[in-house]
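Holo model, adenosine-5'-triphosphate. Inputs:
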Amino acid sequence: MPSQEAVKEALSEVLVPGIGRSLTRLNMVRAVEVANGRLRVTLASTALDAAAKDWVQAKAHSALEKLPDIEEVTVDFTDSSPQELNHIHHAIAVMSGKGGVGKSLVAGLLAIGLNRQGYEVGILDADITGPSIPKMFGITTRPGGSDTGILPVLSRSGIEVMSINLLLPHEDDAIIWRGPLIGKVIQQFWQDVVWGELDYLLVDLPPGTADAPLTVMQLLPLLGVIITFTPQDLAAMVVRKAMQMAQKMNIPILGVVENMSYLLLPDSGKRIEVFGRSKGEEMAMAARAPLLGQLPLDPELAKLCDEGEIERYHSDAFTALSQAFSQAMPRKADSEG
Ligand SMILES: Nc1ncnc2c1ncn2[C@@H]1O[C@H](COP(=O)(O)OP(=O)(O)OP(=O)(O)O)[C@@H](O)[C@H]1O
Ligand SMILES: [Mg+2]
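Output:
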C-alpha cells in the first residue's frame, strides 16, 4: 500500500492551471486516506474555476491510478480559504527612506538569489501606485483564480509574483487611490492570494514611511525589514527614520544593502565612487544590523531590468549579497511552528 508521502509525491506532478505550480507546492492536498486498496484524496478547490477543477481532478486521478496496490481512486474537493493553504516561513519587507534608490531591484535580486539557492520564493509588490516588479521580471500574464482566491503568476525562473500591475487592464494605467484602498489591496494580496508553501516572501514597499509601509508592518507577520540606500543619502537621517518606524512597529532590521555603491570601469576595472564615499558601514552601525552587500551601478543590470530579464543577471557582488542574506536568515527549523 502506498504511504502518504508516496501519494503526495505522485500529486506533486499535477500542475495547477493558470500558475503551473504543483498541487503540493500550493498546499492544495488537504487529506489522504489509504485503506484496503482504496485511495481517497481531498484537494482544495481554492482559486479553481469549474474547468480548472475538472482538469485537476482528472490529472490527479490518472497520477494516483499508477500507484501500486490501489484498486479504487476517489478525488474530491473541499473549500479552504487561501489563508488555510498559505504557509509562509519568512515574510521580509524591503524599504528605504526615499524613492528610486533600488528597493524593487534589491527585492527582486534577493528573491532571485534565494530561488537560485533552491528556496521557494514569492514577491508581493506592495507598491500599489508605482509597481515595478512585473516590468523587471518581464511578466504580463494576468493572474488566474476564481471567487475563492487569486493565483500568483510564476516568473520564468519559478518565483511567485503578485502585483496590482498584473490586474490592471493596461500596464501603464495610473492608480490614484487613497490610503485606505491601498491598504485593502495589500491586505488582499496577503490574504486572498494562494501563495502555498513558501520559504520566503519578499515584500517590495513604496518609498518612505507613509501609508503602505505602515499597512504592511501592521498586517503582515514580518520576520523583519531590509533597508536599502545609496551613498547619496543623508545616511543617519534615512536610517533613523526607517529605524524609528520599524522599532515603533516592533519589527527588527535584518540588514542593510547599499545600492549604486560604485562603478567599475570596463577596461581598467577601476572603481569609481559615483555618488560619493560608501556609507555601508555607517548605515549598518546606525541600524545595528549587518551590511549584507554593496551593489555596483551596473549598466548590464539596468539593461536587463529594462528588458524584463532581471533573472538573467549574474555578478560577484550579487552572489555575495545572496550569500550574506541567506546566512543572516534564521535556519528553517528555527521558525517552524
Ligand atoms: N545598481 C544598479 N545598477 C544599474 N541600474 C540600477 C541599479 N539600481 C537601480 N537601477 C535602476 O534604477 C531604476 C530604479 O530602481 P528601483 O525601481 O529598484 O528603485 P526603487 O527604490 O524601487 O524606486 P521607487 O521608489 O520608485 O519604488 C530601475 O530602473 C533600475 O533598473
Ligand atoms: Mg520600487
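The chain is about 35% helix and 25% strand. The radius of gyration is 22 Å.
Archived with the compound record.
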